[in-house]
Amino acid sequence: MSIESCAAVLEIAGINKRFGGLSVLSDVSFEVAAGTSLGLIGPNGAGKTTLFNILTGFTTPNAGTIRFNSEDITKFAPERRAALGVSRTFQLVRPFNGLSVLENVMVGAFSIEKHTAPARKRALAVLERVGLGAASSMRPAKLTLSDRKRMELARCIAAQPKVLLLDEVMCGLNPTEMAEMIVLIRSTKADGISLILVEHIMDVIAELAEDVVVLAGGSVISHGKPSVVLTDARVVEAYLGEAYDAVH
Amino acid sequence: MSVPQLVDLMILTLIWAGISAAWNLLAGFAGQFSLGHAAFLGIGAYAAAIGAMHYGILPWGGMIAGALIAGSLALVIGSISLRMRGPFFTLLTIAFAEVVRLIAIYWKHLTNGSEGVIIELKPGLMNLHFLEKWPYLIIAGIYAIAMGGLCAAIRRSRIGHQLLAIRDDEDAARSLGVPVYRLRVAATVISAVCTAVGGSLLAMYTQFIDPDSTMSFLLSVEAGLITIVGGLGHPWGPLFGAILIVPLERVLRGLFGGVLFGLHGVIFGLVLIVILLAMPDGLLDGANRLREHRKLRSRA
Question: pTM for this one?
Fold first, then answer.
């Protein structure tokens, strides 16, 4: 791996967030290396969603900085971050229900294309790739949950982000659908998109993430390779309950 | 019904189709429901009328001035209401329109107050004033088609996709890089400008304006009603809505207006309820569904 591809695409430093008197995140710092995937795990209420919202600009931190390719984006609005290349999916899929599946993906494509014809072409190519080519003229409401999740991913891919934050993409999927989704996410990564995955399913984290950050009670309690982190005594105690065994 | 009456009805229908299309751009595309469009309509009407009668400006010039004033006010309203959504935006537009209406009533020096302004000009295209009705029909037709065409073009474009995305889910749109606030203000301004142009045309056609006929709250409701009946968010929905609503209102008033005061309003309301129960997403959507239904049946 060259030195350049090891550079951090996203640097999170000293993030603090309080809601009134409640401290939700305290001194959260980590980096995402370009072209890698980072798994963000932790028990419910650990602050994962808040951190996600802070990274994408929907929530402002009380302290700390976020740098994207060395640029301080802490005060940037979500749309400005997205235009730079930081995009996200939502835990509960949020399709544009008044638009067709194709048009949903075109909204993503329009963030890099100005005109309709190239945007449509790009969107169609992405839909083919995620296996939704045949559904392009349908309304999202008619799709299965798994297909809606693919559509949401396609919408993001069409915008060609540099960093993509995936909020529990596996949630609600059956094992077959999950396996397909893993293939899809891997191909996304192969495009050079860095990923942050919030996930409760450790198989997925072990499968996809090079790096794992464990949040508990608003602090990073462990950070490192999945094989190390998932057997870390503190992580086991705070979250997993038992050591993760990748062989099972 | 005589031919002139029929032409009169067609002219009003077309002008209202255009005004409603402008309303549709904001409500159907950007998801911002305005009940203050009567203000923009009135500003267009007054700018053309006052400009021509008091300042010797050609009605075309007055139309442009009205559009500019309406656009500037919409820029202010749009910017104030950036973070307002749903009912809050609607309430703001109602209050705004009421203020504009009261100004029109009390700034008598400029507007002639409740007495209104009679427009008398030398006939000709320059003065947008004709002895015959057909030139008005052509101009109204051009306006209606231009407005529907504008909506259709926007719907196919980048901005159209982004506006509909904002309407359906603002946060999801933002996380795809859609400049939500800028687009929402732009939609408000374009909608106001187009509405003002319709107001100018309405004034030049009726040749008399007063605050009631150009700025009443009911006119804002009318634009919304036509759009929702025709198909909210469909570029040509307002045209179909206007073709149904405008003549229906007139015909019912003609038939029952003299029988019992307010009876035509009751019947009009009942007809609307039935239409919206049968086709909750408007005429265009209803027609589409009927076509699909037929297709399925013929296949079976």
Answer: 0.89
Are B117 and B208 spatial neighbours (Cβ–Cβ below 8 Å)?
A: yes
Does the residue B85 lie in any domain?
Answer: yes
- The closest of A24, A81, A39 to A208, measured between CA atoms, is A39
Q: Which domain holds residue B88?
A: 3-215
* Chain B CA closest to residue A81: B177
Q: What is the pLDDT of residues A66-118, one digit of tens each?
A: 999 999 999 999 999 999 999 999 888 899 999 999 999 999 999 999 999 99
Compute the half-sphere exposure of residue A218: CA atoms within 13 Å on the CB side of its CA: 14
The count of other CB atoms within 10 Å of the CB of residue B86 is 10
Structural domain contains residue B55 = yes
Per the domain annotation, does B240 fall within a domain?
Answer: no
CA distance B23 to B234: 12
Q: How many contacts (CB atoms, under 8 Å) link A and B?
A: 78
Contacts of A107 in chain B (CB under 8 A): 161-162, 165, 173, 176, 178
Higher pLDDT, B215 or B142: B142
Residues of A in contact with B167 (CB under 8 A): 98
Cα angle value B175/B180/B185 (rounded, 5°): 175
| Subunit contact A156:B158, Cβ cutoff 8 A | no
Structural domains in chain A, CATH included, are 1-85+161-248 (3.40.50.300), 94-160 (no CATH)
Note whether B289 contacts A: Cβ–Cβ < 8 A.
no
**Section B154-167 average pLDDT:** 96
Contact yes or no for A211/A31 (Cβ under 8 A) = no
The residue of chain A with its CA nearest to that of B165 is: A96
List b or e across B187-208, with b for residues whose CB sees 16 or more CB atoms inside 10 angstroms. bbbbbbbbbbbbbbbbbbbbee
Residue for token pair 């999202």: A140
Say how many domains are in chain B. Answer: 1
pLDDT in tens, B54-82: 888 899 999 999 999 999 999 999 998 87
What is the three-class DSSP state of B221? helix
Report how far residue B267's alpha carbon sits from residue B246's, in angstroms, rounded to the nearest whole number. Answer: 14
The distance in angstroms from the start CA to the end CA of chain B is: 44
